[in-house]
């Protein structure tokens, strides 16, 4: 069951590049971003990258990873998997699951929990997202 809203972020795409694929798959687009927000009430700066591949049905399949840190040195790494859709105006809209790993006490409530996320990117590269605990 989805739980409480535990995180919000806003940021922007910093770089994109097209990556060749193996085994006859279409090329993928790798996107890196920076975002600031709050996770479990802790201010965070998030650095991440994800790779998106166009699927035959017109949706996108994405896999990403990143690290985040707080001003006090608390930190976590994350891995995510999602499905995206092209949005009006040239952006993308993603929905998926994210898992965190951290030894920092500030993020102890993330241990053993999957997060369900929304991540929306506008055509100009600005982005915002929300994360709910999935217990």
Got a strand count? 8
What kind of assembly state do the chains in view correspond to? single chain
Rg on CA atoms, Å: 15 Å
Shape: globular
Largest sheet: 8 strands, antiparallel, barrel
- Structural domain count: 1
How many DSSP H or I helices?
0
Q: Any idea of the CATH class?
A: Mainly Beta
Residue-averaged pLDDT, rounded?
95
Strand content: over 45%
SSE-based structural type: mainly beta
CATH architecture: Beta Barrel
Q: Could you give the distance between the termini?
A: 6 Å
Kindly describe this structure.
By secondary structure, this protein is an all-beta fold. It has one domain (2-134): Porin (Beta Barrel), CATH 2.40.160. Helices cover 0% and strands 68% of the residues. It has no helices and 8 strands. It has an 8-stranded antiparallel beta barrel. Strand 5 and strand 6 form a beta hairpin. It starts with a strand and ends with a strand. The model has no long low-confidence stretch (mean pLDDT 95).
């Amino acid at each position: 069951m989805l739980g409480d809203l535990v995180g919000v972020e806003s940021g922007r795409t910093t770089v994109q590049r097209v990556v060749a694929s193996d085994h006859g798959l279409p090329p993928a687009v790798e996107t890196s971003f920076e975002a600031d927000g709050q996770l479990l009430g802790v201010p965070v700066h998030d650095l991440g990258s994800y790779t998106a591949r166009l699927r035959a049905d017109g949706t996108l399949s994405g896999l990403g990873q990143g690290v985040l840190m707080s001003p006090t040195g608390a930190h976590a790494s994350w891995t995510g998997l999602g499905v995206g859709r092209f949005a009006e105006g040239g952006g993308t809209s993603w929905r998926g699951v994210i898992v965190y790993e951290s030894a920092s006490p500030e993020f102890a409530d993330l241990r053993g929990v999957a997060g369900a996320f929304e991540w929306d990117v506008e055509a100009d590269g600005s982005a915002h997202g929300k994360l709910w605990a999935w217990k």
